[in-house]
Amino acid sequence: MQTKKTLMMGSLLTILGLLLASCAPAVQPTSTAKPAVPAAAPTTAPPATVAGKPAPAPSPKPAAAQPSYGGALTMVTETDAPSLDPHQETPGAVISMVGPIYNGIVQADPMDTTKIVPDLAERWEVSADKLAYIFHLRKGVKFHDGASFTSGDAKYALERIKNPPRGTKSPRQDYLKAISRIETPDDYTLRIIVSYPSASFLPMLANPWMLVVPKHIVEREGDMKRLAVGTGPFTFKTLTRGVSSRVVKNADYFIKGRPYLDEVVHYIVPDPFTRFAALRAGNVLLIRGTPGIPEAQAKVIETTMADKIVVQRGPHALNQGIGLQTKRPPFTDIRVRQAIAYALDPERAIRLNVDGAGVVGGILPPFWGWDVGYSRAQEDRRRNAEDCHDRFRKSRILLVREDRASLGAGEGLCESPASFLRHQDGARLAGKRLGYRG
Question: Stretch 363-383: mean pLDDT, rounded?
Answer without folding.
Answer: 59
